[in-house]
Amino acid sequence: MAMALDQARAAAARGEVPVGAVVVGPDGRVLGQAGNATRALHDPSAHAEVLAIRAACRTLETDRLPGCALFVTLEPCAACAGVIAAARIARLIYGASDPKSGGVMHGARVFSHPQTHHVPEIYDGIAATDAQALLTAFFAARR
Amino acid sequence: MAMALDQARAAAARGEVPVGAVVVGPDGRVLGQAGNATRALHDPSAHAEVLAIRAACRTLETDRLPGCALFVTLEPCAACAGVIAAARIARLIYGASDPKSGGVMHGARVFSHPQTHHVPEIYDGIAATDAQALLTAFFAARR
């Protein structure tokens, strides 16, 4: 999660919403990591989770990541949760809760319907204070 | 929708699930079009809708597509619905209903929660018979 927080800080420095994500393989190897880059890439799907998963899939030349863990600093939105399910991520570990935009424990609750093709193990609240502090500082500075 | 069906047929010919999508601008110009390519691209997020939206965003050098319409041959899944909301697509026009994996009228119902940042106008069932026939033939041939 420390690496994910580093990615979130780097995103903030680029003017992107500070969220970071890291995909770790079954053997503990880092397969992909990214921060939000929707603005820089002109891509509304370029959330940290999706970019880290895409990077890991490129590394392994696959479109599924069974046995892998995704660390992300913020509760994934519905779009990211859907990609996490599609990628068959085994464990989702996230930091801050996101009542406004989250799609795991809030709103769409993507993993809580039979239409999801996969449900990861979920661990929330990990380093949540640090993750939330980054977001709060970022949005406070923009007001 | 005829162009989206052409993209779906091209996807099937590549061995990908036959779904196609087209983004049309406010002036009627085609800004992006794609078929599913999750296998070829090693990218679990490479559904037709997401690829068409990414292409349109590249065309306009933006991460939002207000005023644009997305035509897609199948009800979007939760991941795609989330990206459609993030991109601020004005109108979503889709073909076949997807009770098994859909995230618009089924399961996560992504646009039906306050956590969605945007709700498009939705028109369903457009050329649904043709879209469903492509999917049925594709999966029948693989059994």
Automatic annotation (TrEMBL), chains A, B:
It comes from the Bacteria. Binds 1 zinc ion per subunit. Its EC number is 3.5.4.33. The active site is at 49 (proton donor). It catalyses: adenosine(34) in tRNA + H2O + H(+) = inosine(34) in tRNA + NH4(+). Coiled coil: none annotated. PROSITE patterns: CYT_DCMP_DEAMINASES_1 (PS00903), CYT_DCMP_DEAMINASES_2 (PS51747). Signal peptide: none annotated. Its cofactor is Zn(2+). Residues 1-105 form the CMP/dCMP-type deaminase domain. Catalyzes the deamination of adenosine to inosine at the wobble position 34 of tRNA(Arg2). Belongs to the cytidine and deoxycytidylate deaminase family. ADAT2 subfamily. This is tRNA-specific adenosine deaminase. It comes from Oceaniovalibus guishaninsula JLT2003.
